[in-house]
Amino acid sequence: MEVSIELSQNEKHECFESFDDDGRLKRKGTMWTASAHIITAVIGSGVLSLAWAIAQLGWVAGPVVMILFSFVIYYTSSLLSDCYRSGDPISGKRNYTYTDAVTAYLGGLKVNICGFIQYANLFGVAISYTIASSISMTAIRRSNCFHQKGQNSPCHISSNPYMIIFGVIEIIFSQIPDFDQIWWLSIVAAVMSFTYSCIGLALGIVQVVANGGIKGSLTGISIGAVTETQKIWRSLQAFGDIAFAYSYSMILIEIQDTIKSPPPSEAKVMKKATLLSVEVTTVFYLLCGCLGYAAFGDSAPGNLLTGFGFYNPFWLLDIANAAIVIHLVGAYQVYCQPLFAFIEKWATRKWPHSEFISREIKIGRSYKLNLFRLVWRTAFVVVTTVISMLLPFFNDIVGLLGAVGFWPLTVYFPVEMYIVQKKVAKWSTRWVCLQMLSFACLVVSLAAAVGSIAGVVSDLKVFRPFKSSY
Fold first, then answer.
1. Which of 10, 149, 436, 451 lies at 20 to 30 Å from 72 by C-alpha?
2. Where are the transmembrane segments (predicted)?
3. pLDDT per residue over 185-203, tens digit each?
4. Domain around 329
């Protein structure tokens, strides 16, 4: 009898040890896994447009704007990481998602506004990544075509089949149940992002040497090569491209929710992961953007790797583009898992007794197939793929997404939640400084949105649906 009681106590102890303070399975994330998630999310397809962005702004404004964005992102991300727990940073109530944090601190209409902007932006990112992946797959096909048929061959390749291939891959990976289980995919994706960034850097250096010097000017592309109006629109769009390249705040809370329980607090770990990730990405961005501009000058392409042509070394470009595709497969999941989880939780609350939503079919030893998850996530990927085929404007879509999501998700809500959490007195020095930061970023977002919309309108004038080719 005593033995059975002892075993029961051990079982209870083991059961207790396997769960966190909120009753969920123990989180196992560390600073390194959080950094991998952030780098996967940040060093995405946006890095490829940075040379073009600097070409619009020039040698002075381009790097300065990029560094300013990095400071803003780090500062506001630090504010946001403090909002993961309500009250005490060690034992306070957890906020599992960005929207949960807004609900806890701000409430009311702001929750609905935040949710709409966040999930609309995640939806847009999925479209952008589908377009970017198809560009890279098409580039691989074209380089091989030129290698086989000669440089004079037209080698026009439709991007639509490659968008479909990417969509099929994402349908498979989207069946991974939740964020915490894709850490390995984030690590692979982060390695791939460094791979193609390093190849881009190396090719940029080689191009600068071949040119016999550095191209570009202090003020960027000059009037004459473009009209005054185009110069303005492009410069504004460049702000949006840079904002998009740094954006990850919309999934910061979800990443933080994967970090194991204190001590130290999740906020401290997340701040370290954010600092490391922003430092690494800023160095990479400056190198890629500046070397790309130095190599191509005012004619820097919207996608850096396509500027090196499709000829030689074709195998190195193929590796770089393949790395982009692999990275985007992971990045797509990092961004979409919060949206997947939101819809599934909403459906469970709405129809708690539905077998279609709650029933899970065990497959193999550990995987459980949920029919609602299968249908909903498959439908999501199909819709984003079709829209990508309709709107294959990579550069303009990137700029618009960056502009729309930057101010509200990266600056406004983190600042407002921090003010409530720390009880910052209205009209105090700190309050005024925070509001000035928020207003300045609002102006930048609006300007970037205008420039990107102008670019989309220009593209639509010559656009034919489902006829995209390279």
1. 451
2. 34-54, 60-84, 119-140, 160-176, 182-206, 273-294, 314-335, 374-394, 400-420, 432-457
3. 778 887 887 788 788 788 8
4. 24-338+386-460
